Amino acid sequence: MISKTVVLKNDTGLHARPATLVIKEASKFQSNITFIKGTQESNAKSIMGLMAMGIKKGEEVEIKVDGPDEKETLDTIIALFESNFGE
C-alpha cells in the first residue's frame, strides 16, 4: 500500500468532468484506489462517491493505492491532479 497527499488546484473543484477522468484512468488498473478527505473516504472508481466528497479548490486529498500495479496507478492519478484535469 502506498499513498500521497495532493492539493486540488482546479478552480471548479472535483466536479463531474474531472471525476469522470479519474474513474476512466483508475479503471485501467487492478489496484484499489481510495480518496480520503478528512473523515470521508471514497472508492476512486465510483462517480457517486467522488461527487459526494465535494472536493473543492485548495483542499487536501490523500490518495491511497493498494494492489499489484500500485506505483503506476498512483503516478497516473497524481498526474491528473498536477495537470488540473486538462482545464
Automatic annotation (TrEMBL):
Give GO cellular component annotations, separated by semicolons: cytoplasm
Asked whether the keyword Cytoplasm is assigned, the reply is yes
Cross-referenced Gene3D superfamilies, in alphabetical order? HPr-like
Q: Where is the HPr domain?
A: 1-87
Keywords, in A-Z order: Cytoplasm, Phosphotransferase system
The record's section on Pfam families has: PTS-HPr
Q: Where in the cell is it found?
A: Cytoplasm
Q: Which GO terms describe its biological process?
A: phosphoenolpyruvate-dependent sugar phosphotransferase system
**Listed InterPro entries:** HPr (IPR050399), HPr-like (IPR000032), HPr-like_sf (IPR035895), PTS_HPr_His_P_site (IPR001020), PTS_HPr_Ser_P_site (IPR002114)
Briefly state the protein's biological role: General (non sugar-specific) component of the phosphoenolpyruvate-dependent sugar phosphotransferase system (sugar PTS). This major carbohydrate active-transport system catalyzes the phosphorylation of incoming sugar substrates concomitantly with their translocation across the cell membrane. The phosphoryl group from phosphoenolpyruvate (PEP) is transferred to the phosphoryl carrier protein HPr by enzyme I. Phospho-HPr then transfers it to the PTS EIIA domain.
The name of this protein is: Phosphocarrier protein HPr
Please name the source species.
Anaerovirgula multivorans
